[in-house]
Amino acid sequence: MITKLAIFEGTVKPGQTAAMRAYVEAELAPLWRAFDGAHRVRVLYAAAPDEGGGAGGEDRPSLPLILQVDYQSQAGLDRAMASDARHRSRAMLPAFYERFFETVILRHHTFDAD
Q1: In what order do the strands lie in the sheet with 2-12?
Q2: Where are the domains of the chain?
Q3: For 60-80, b where at least 16 C-beta lie within 10 A, e where not — what string?
Q4: Which pTM was predicted?
Q5: Residues 45-52: contacts with CB within 8 Å, 24+ apart?
Q6: Of 10, 54, 99, 114, which has the fewest CB atoms closer than 10 Å, so is most exposed?
Q7: What is the pLDDT of residues 1-26, one digit of tens each?
Q8: How far is CA 74 from CA 30, 60, 69, 79, in A?
Q9: Looking at the domain covering 2-48+61-112, what would its CATH class be?
């Protein structure tokens, strides 16, 4: 199993959290769920950060949104990366950032999972 995370790190504009979530559910999540080769797709929204910041006392980054997609094989991941749904969702991201975020950094991480 391969798990790929898209971590949206940043700050949602004040008062836009509910609208951002509604937009994700209506527009982006259906495309993410249509990635060819995806086995399981989860969209995670921040509920509340742990108190106390990081292990060394530093502030933790704000992570309002994480996309988790599981693939059963590298071939499935490769199909997803080439899929039309992925390309369409990526094209929507600049307007999504502009509309809902004050700051945003998108980080991708891929993991082997058992």
Answers
A1: 38-45, 65-71, 2-12, 101-112
A2: 2-48+61-112
A3: eeeebbbbbbbbeeeebbebb
A4: 0.89
A5: 45/21
A6: 114
A7: 999 999 999 999 999 999 999 999 99
A8: 22, 32, 13, 9
A9: alpha beta
Q: Which pLDDT score, from 0 to 100, does residue 43 have?
A: 98
**pLDDT above 70: percentage of residues in the chain:** 89
Encoding tokens for residue 22?
A: 């509604």
pLDDT reported for residue 113: 79
Contact 64, 14 (CB under 8 A): no
Beta strand 2-12 with 101-112 is antiparallel
Tokens of 74: 């590298």
What is the residue type of 87?
A: H
